[in-house]
Amino acid sequence: xxxxxxxxPDLFYILVRLGMTPNGMDRCRDRFYVLEQGExxxxxxxxxxxxxxxxxSSSAAAPYQNRWERLPT
Length: 73
Description:
It is a single chain. The protein is mainly beta and 73 residues long. It is built from 1 helix and 6 strands, in the order E-E-E-E-H-E-E. The strands form 3 sheets. It has a two-stranded antiparallel sheet with strand order 1-4. The chain has a two-stranded antiparallel ribbon with strand order 2-3. The protein is flat.
């Protein structure tokens, strides 16, 4: 869940999709997404059934998968 907040310079979100399988967790299948605040905000859509929840699909976030080089050093 990414909630709207005031714009903050150099704020990044590192989101994780846990590697769920029919047999339980497989941590080798975890996926990591590195997004700047504005990118996360642009992808986020409110859940019409529950406005306190928001989110986006992993396919929408695919261009940001494992983009660790984007983080400031």
